[in-house]
Design goal:
The protein is of the alpha+beta class and 134 residues long. It has helices spanning 15-25, 66-71, 87-96, and strands at residues 5-11, 29-30, 34-36, 41-47, 52-58, 76-84, 108-109, 115-119, 128-133. Strands 1, 2, 3, 4, 5, 6, 7, 8 and 9 form a 9-stranded mixed β-sheet that branches. The radius of gyration is 15 Å and the shape is globular. The structure holds cobalt (II) ion. Cobalt (II) ion binds next to strand 1 and strand 6.
Length: 134
């Protein structure tokens, strides 16, 4: 069921500074910032040959990464995103196996314009998992 690693997401306090680090220090291709109010974040994607890095900055007072950045003031790895062919089938299989889907379990449209869903980190060894329908 699980497909390719789509991206590793890193929460940052300063998206501009983080983008410049990837662009200048690592010579990476970095996208323009994209505000996602329904997810409470602004994102950029760093394109690597085999996957992407997603840099996340809080957007709005109720951002889901606000508390994470309070606990991790230097930023930190926030989630991993795996691709799946059919997100509803994947969700149903995982929930039947005891995993908890966040946000009521209904997929939202993510930064790539595709349905995404998050799974509780306590069910995945402490790692927040995002599924994206490829
Ligand atoms: Co993501």
């Amino acid at each position: 069921m699980i497909g390719r690693l789509n991206h590793v997401a890193i929460a940052v306090k300063d998206l501009g500074a983080a983008s410049e680090k990837y662009r200048r220090t690592l010579g990476a291709e970095v996208s323009a910032p994209q505000a996602l109010p329904e997810h409470g974040v602004t994102v950029v994607f760093v394109t690597l040959p085999n996957a992407k890095v997603e840099l996340l900055e809080p957007l709005g007072a109720a951002s889901p990464i606000g508390k994470f950045l309070e606990r991790n003031p230097d930023g930190g790895i926030h989630h991993l995103c795996f691709e799946v062919d059919d997100i509803l089938a994947a969700r149903d299989l995982l929930v039947a196996g005891g995993a908890r889907a966040l946000g009521g379990g209904e997929p939202k449209i993510g930064a790539h314009g595709k349905p995404v869903l998050f799974l509780h980190p306590k069910d995945f060894n402490g790692a927040l998992i995002e599924l994206e329908q490829a």
